[in-house]
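[Meeting: bench + compute handoff]

Bench side (C.D.) handed over the final construct sequence. Compute side (W.E.) agreed to return the predicted structure before the next meeting so the bench team could plan truncations. Sequence as handed over:
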Amino acid sequence: MIDLKFYVYVLYRDVAVIDPFYVGKGHGNRINYHDRLLEKGKRVNRHKNNTIRQCLKAHGFVPKQLYADRLTEQEAFYLERYLISLWGRRDKGTGCLTNMTDGGEGTAGCIYSAEQRARNSAARKGKPGHPKSPEERAKLSAALTGKRKSEAHKEKLRQANLGKTQSQETKAKNSASNTGRIRSLETCQKLSEALTGRERSPEHCANISKAKKGKKQAPDVIARQVESRARTMAGRPGPNLGRVFSAEVRARMRAGHLRRKQQQAEMQQNG
């Protein structure tokens, strides 16, 4: 049975209900929730509370409208997001609403001030799970090991991280945590299977080339590569067996081989 108990409501600045200042979704008596918050002295949304005070002073009540009812929760979320995007938010400079999020589930689009972020950080410090103990991290690792993400989940993660740049401190931490880490044969095999046949876009290749230009590999990395090639050549088939390379690829491979030989010679000279 479909649950149609949800509705979308609008709070207005004027009794003619033509100047909205807040859009919400709820059920039951949610439409009167904001008046009660103000009475209790809750300071969740300063702009909304000030507007409610102005309405009470001017009209003696807050003009409200049940915009649509008998909705499923997803329909209510959709309509709430649509109305907020239609009328715009004051904190973003796009409209008249005092909403602090873009609507729907969660706090999407919420803008936190530096003071709010500091308060949230201080409130979480010292609480269980911040930071997690080694035992908790081990349990999480065990629970997530082997769990595959759906394509939709991967796409959401990709979109969320687009344009993000890690700080030098974060990069240093990641480097330190991965230094000396040796992948198991099973992990290497999975990575190989996942990447086999995967074509990189010209833009991706250009970015990799740009990132590697002028960089020299660490001596321990070169030593591991030399050891790996020695094992491959000792009676074991190499990864390129049977592959046919173009003249351009062969030229690049030769140039890379000569460059590595030069690096090895420099290392030997420097002792």
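W.E. noted at the follow-up: The beta strands are 6-12, 20-26, 64-71. C.D. will use this when planning the next construct.
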